[in-house]
Amino acid sequence: MGFMDKMIAVAGIIKAVDNPDLTKAYIDLQNEAYKLTEKLEEKNEQIGQLKKTLELKGRMDIIDSVYWLTDEQKKTIDGPFCPKCIDVDHIQCRVTPLPSDFHPGVRCPNCKSDFESSLAITYIEDRKKNGQRKVLGR
Ligand SMILES: [Zn+2]
User: What is the distance in A from the centroid of ligand 1 to the CA of 8?
Assistant: First the structure.
């Protein structure tokens, strides 16, 4: 018997007893149960998102100051991503090159952090030139 079935069964007993105090207490309890069920669903959703982030982070490596997504053979398949956003905010945010005066640097458009990374610059420029994602070996 599931939780909701038990609540319905108890409601039937309370109705038969016909006590206003007991009925009110049951309704309060039922409202609390609904709120807790909603909270539980919300928490389960958060756990799912955190699991996804952890799984993704397990496939991320910091190379030359920024995060890269790697495959099973540890080959870079995507990036570069901001290390601060991944470590602190658990979001993947692609960094972009700083104006050429600041080379070899990249900036996160989300948190505005700058990182020195000639590998990131090379990768981004190659990707632009090739018009597709290039797989870099390590
Ligand atoms: Zn960032």
Answer: 50
- How far is ligand 1, taken at its centre, from the CA of residue 134, in Å? 23
Q: How far is the CA of 2 from the centre of ligand 1 (A)?
A: 45
- Which has the closest alpha carbon to 118: 83, 66, 48? 66
Residue 137 in any domain: the answer is no
Please indicate, yes or no, whether residues 88 and 114 belong to a single structural domain of this protein: yes
What does the DSSP assignment read for 42-81?
Answer: HHHHHHHHHHHHHHHHHTEEEETTEEEEE-TT--EEEEEE
What is the distance in A from the centroid of ligand 1 to the CA of 74? 23
pTM recorded for the entire structure: 0.59
pLDDT digits over 44-59, tens only? 999 998 888 778 777 8
* Distance from Cα 83 to the centre of ligand 1, integer Å: 7
The domain total for the chain is 2
In a domain, 24, yes or no: yes
Confidence band, pLDDT 50/70/90 cuts, at residue 136 = low
SS3 20: helix
Ligand 1 center–CA 72 separation, angstroms: 25
Shared domain for 37 and 88, answered yes or no, is no
Expressed as residue numbers, the domain containing 93 is 60-130
